[in-house]
């Protein structure tokens, strides 16, 4: 069974393993460097001692006379102050005249095979196996007054002595490596635990998945979202924010820039005094766009890490409000039709209850004649059931208000253009009729009819609504379709015509507005079928 280790355990083991290998290599390299340095130092020390001994005049005379007794007495004092493993004196025939460790070697030849150069007057350093083992030694010639080599001085350090020195050095190195490993062990553990805490105990794969999910989530959000750090630098920004603010640069180019360089807000949404608290649904202006913005602090362990700003176009809220108002008007139309139907039914029930059958029949014929005629006209001329319901509702609503909604005999709509959906078409016609009714009601009674023309017989859909109301004031004629512009005195207005213009523009259509003699206005819409 395969054991799956967590990230911080893997990191800890990798750090420990790497540290062990690294410190081992450093230890081995240091040991060999110190060993080489020790050999150089001991060789130089042996050479200095050998040369100094060879220059002693009394020793030169004793060697010439083979006075081993004097040589032994002289060398005993020197040996006592030397740290060498041995000191050997030989004659010109490489025969032992003195050996500090093995006096029995007197008269025996010196071994090692490195005496030839010394007898030629040279001082050497070599590693050879002598009479008492392998050693690092230096040999110097003993020269008389005639510059003739009369003997040899050999000062050496046994390999066992050198190994003991290296052992002490190695022990120090190993102790240092162990201490460093312990320190690195503790450091690696603490580092891995700290990383685990900062990563919220998540694995790298889980973090990568979260990052991808966050990126996808930000791009899927309809609202603009920007995250900034404590220095007000942009951390992340989604596509909706760049689109709302009309930022042409790629998201990567915006990262790290100060938010004040990207967004000019009124009032100052990023002022220091404002950043100390969260805010929700605050109306302000970002660059050229009126938005509804929220700002929330990012806190970690009571420490501020930055802010998240979300915002949406204020016009979208107004548009949604207008669409909800349109739905409400549909409901009102149905309520009116139901109210009229209840009144009609109650009247008919009363006549039947009083057994006035002839009057009941005449009442039914009188009421149904007009209703059936308009019902037949609408159902035959318009293929959309929802549009038929809207027109019937508007017709009944107009009658209740004392206004006649008059349909042009040439009206027909066989198919809604592909560039419009049914909801948008109903929004256009409903808003135009509501505006016409309102303009008509602002005139004195009796109210004149509102005329409606819808026709798709050509290559475009033509919609025309004419009223004989108060008309359009000159001061709002040029800005009539802008949001918030209205000729009404009170209420939540200025949205309907803006919504109409938006739908027509999306369908690549056009709108014409003209005066209707002697007073009133005519709205003509032309929407291409393709």
From TrEMBL:
Tell me the Pfam families matching this sequence.
HATPase_c, PAS_8, sCache_3_2
Top-rank lineage group of the source organism: Bacteria
Which reactions does this protein catalyse?
A: ATP + protein L-histidine = ADP + protein N-phospho-L-histidine
Q: How does it sit in the membrane?
A: Multi-pass membrane protein
Keyword Transmembrane helix attributed = yes
Membrane-crossing ranges are 12-32, 173-191
Query: Localized where?
Result: Cell membrane
GO molecular function of the protein, one example? kinase activity
Q: Which PROSITE patterns match?
A: HIS_KIN
What are the EC numbers? 2.7.13.3
Q: Which residues form the Histidine kinase domain?
A: 398-530
User: Which keywords describe this protein according to UniProt?
Assistant: ATP-binding, Cell membrane, Kinase, Membrane, Nucleotide-binding, Phosphoprotein, Transferase, Transmembrane, Transmembrane helix, Two-component regulatory system
Gene3D superfamilies given for it?
Histidine kinase-like ATPase, C-terminal domain (3.30.565.10), PAS domain (3.30.450.20)
> Which PANTHER family does the UniProt record give?
SENSOR HISTIDINE KINASE RCSC (PTHR43711:SF26), TWO-COMPONENT HISTIDINE KINASE (PTHR43711)
Indicate what this protein is called per its UniProt record. histidine kinase
């Amino acid at each position: 069974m395969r054991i799956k280790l967590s990230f911080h355990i893997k990191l800890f083991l990798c750090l420990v393993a790497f540290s062990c290998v690294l410190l081992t290599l450093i230890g081995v390299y240091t040991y060999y460097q110190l060993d080489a340095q020790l050999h150089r130092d001991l060789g130089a020390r042996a050479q200095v001692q050998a040369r100094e001994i060879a220059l002693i005049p009394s020793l030169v005379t004793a060697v010439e006379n083979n006075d081993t007794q004097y040589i032994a007495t002289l060398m005993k004092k020197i040996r006592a102050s030397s740290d060498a493993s041995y000191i050997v004196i030989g004659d010109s025939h490489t025969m032992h005249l003195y050996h500090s460790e093995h006096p029995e070697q007197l008269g025996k030849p010196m071994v090692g095979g490195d005496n030839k150069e010394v007898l030629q007057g040279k001082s050497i350093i070599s590693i050879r196996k002598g009479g008492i083992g392998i050693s690092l030694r230096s040999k110097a010639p003993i020269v008389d007054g005639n510059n003739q080599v009369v003997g040899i001085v050999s000062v050496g350090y046994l390999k066992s002595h050198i190994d003991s020195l290296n052992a002490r050095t190695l022990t120090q190195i190993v102790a240092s490596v162990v201490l460093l490993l312990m320190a690195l062990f503790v450091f690696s553990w603490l580092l891995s635990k700290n990383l685990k805490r900062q990563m919220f105990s998540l694995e790298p794969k889980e973090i990568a998945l979260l990052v991808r999910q966050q990126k996808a989530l930000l791009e899927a959000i309809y609202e603009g979202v920007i995250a900034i750090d404590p220095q007000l630098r942009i951390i992340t920004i989604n596509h909706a924010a760049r689109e709302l603010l009309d930022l042409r640069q790629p998201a990567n180019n915006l990262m790290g820039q100060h938010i004040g360089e990207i967004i000019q807000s009124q009032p100052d949404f990023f002022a220091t005094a404002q950043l100390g608290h969260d805010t929700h649904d605050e109306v302000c202006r970002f660059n050229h766009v009126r938005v509804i913005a929220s700002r929330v602090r990012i806190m970690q362990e009571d420490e501020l890490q930055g802010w998240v700003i979300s915002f949406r176009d204020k016009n979208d809220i107004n548009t949604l409000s207008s669409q909800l108002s349109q739905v409400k008007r549909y409901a009102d139309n149905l309520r009116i039709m139901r109210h009229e139907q209840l009144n009609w039914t109650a009247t008919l029930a009363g006549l039947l209850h009083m057994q006035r059958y002839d009057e009941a029949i005449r009442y039914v014929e009188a009421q149904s004649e007009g209703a059936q005629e308009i019902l037949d006209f609408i159902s035959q001329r318009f293929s959309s059931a929802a549009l038929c319901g809207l027109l019937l509702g508007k017709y009944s609503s107009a009658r209740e208000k004392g206004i006649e909604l008059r349909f042009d005999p040439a009206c027909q709509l066989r198919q809604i253009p592909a560039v419009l959906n049914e909801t948008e078409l109903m929004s256009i016609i409903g808003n135009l009729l509501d505006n016409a009714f309102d303009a008509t009601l602002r005139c004195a009674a009796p109210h004149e009819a509102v005329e409606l023309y819808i026709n798709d017989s050509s290559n475009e859909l033509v919609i025309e609504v004419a009223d004989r109301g108060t008309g359009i004031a000159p001061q709002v004629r040029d800005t009539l379709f802008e949001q918030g512009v209205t000729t009404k005195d009170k209420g939540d207005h200025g949205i309907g015509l803006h919504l109409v213009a938006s739908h027509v523009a999306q369908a690549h259509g056009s709108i014409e507005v003209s005066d209707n003699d002697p007073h009133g206005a005519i709205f003509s819409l032309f929407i291409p079928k393709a």
